[in-house]
């Protein structure tokens, strides 16, 4: 019995001397923490990708704007070249024609303002025979109208007949002949006035002036 007890005690001592279980490492995450960490990493990557996509879209938009600006610039240059080519192909207006056009425009403003005598002063160039261009035709007709407003019937007759003879194709020629006949009638040249109006009706039968002339003849038989 003395030998058995010490042996049992030795066995117990040996059991108590077994190495303890290793403690859990403090730095290793638990499974829920690991999932959360991975989700955060994925979300961060998604955010970075979204930012890159936004930057790419901005770059694409900027490139499209530059492309549109370049296209507009090319169109403007092409239009400018066409305009330059067209203007260079047309002959420049002579200085005299420019001065006549300016004088006509000034006379037209004076006429519309009721300043008929001043308008006549601006239209003196129309009394001389020129190239017969558009400005000269307009000026000569306005000259006749200014004389008509001032009741210068002799000047109306001379200017109106000249206009109708030189510019017979002008639509205003019919009105010029009517004014001539009207002044002749006022100067008691009734037969001459009727002849002028008949000529007007034969030459320009569809014009308003011809209808007025026919009515005047019918009313004064």
Automatic annotation (TrEMBL):
Stretch forming the signal peptide: 1-26
InterPro entries reported for this sequence: BamD-like, TPR-like_helical_dom_sf
Region of interest (Disordered), ranges: 74-97
Coiled coil: 39-73
Protein name (database record): Outer membrane lipoprotein BamD-like domain-containing protein
Xref: Gene3D superfamilies: Tetratricopeptide repeat domain (1.25.40.10)
Species this chain originates from: Eikenella corrodens CC92I
Domain (Outer membrane lipoprotein BamD-like): residue spans on this chain: 100-219
Stretches with biased composition (Low complexity): 85-97
Spans through the membrane: none
Key words of the record: Coiled coil, Signal
């Amino acid at each position: 019995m003395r030998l058995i007890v010490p042996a049992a005690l030795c066995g117990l001592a040996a059991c108590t001397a077994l190495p303890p279980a290793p403690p859990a490492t403090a730095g290793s995450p638990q499974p829920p923490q690991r999932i959360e960490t991975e989700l955060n990493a994925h979300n961060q990557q998604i955010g970075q990708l979204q930012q890159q996509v936004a930057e790419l879209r901005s770059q694409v938009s900027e490139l499209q704007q530059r492309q549109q600006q370049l296209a507009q610039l090319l169109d403007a240059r092409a239009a400018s070249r066409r305009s330059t080519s067209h203007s260079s192909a047309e002959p420049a207006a002579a200085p005299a024609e420019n001065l006549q056009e300016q004088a006509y425009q000034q006379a037209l403003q004076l006429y519309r303002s009721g300043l008929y005598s001043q308008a006549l002063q601006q239209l003196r160039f129309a009394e001389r025979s020129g190239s017969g261009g558009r400005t000269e035709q307009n000026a000569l007709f306005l000259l006749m109208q200014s004389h008509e407003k001032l009741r210068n019937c002799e000047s109306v007759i001379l200017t109106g007949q000249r206009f109708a003879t030189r510019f017979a194709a002008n639509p205003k020629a019919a009105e010029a002949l009517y004014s001539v006949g009207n002044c002749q009638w006022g100067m008691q040249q009734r037969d001459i006035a009727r002849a002028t109006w008949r000529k007007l009706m034969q030459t320009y039968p569809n014009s308003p002036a011809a209808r007025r002339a026919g009515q005047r003849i019918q009313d004064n038989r």
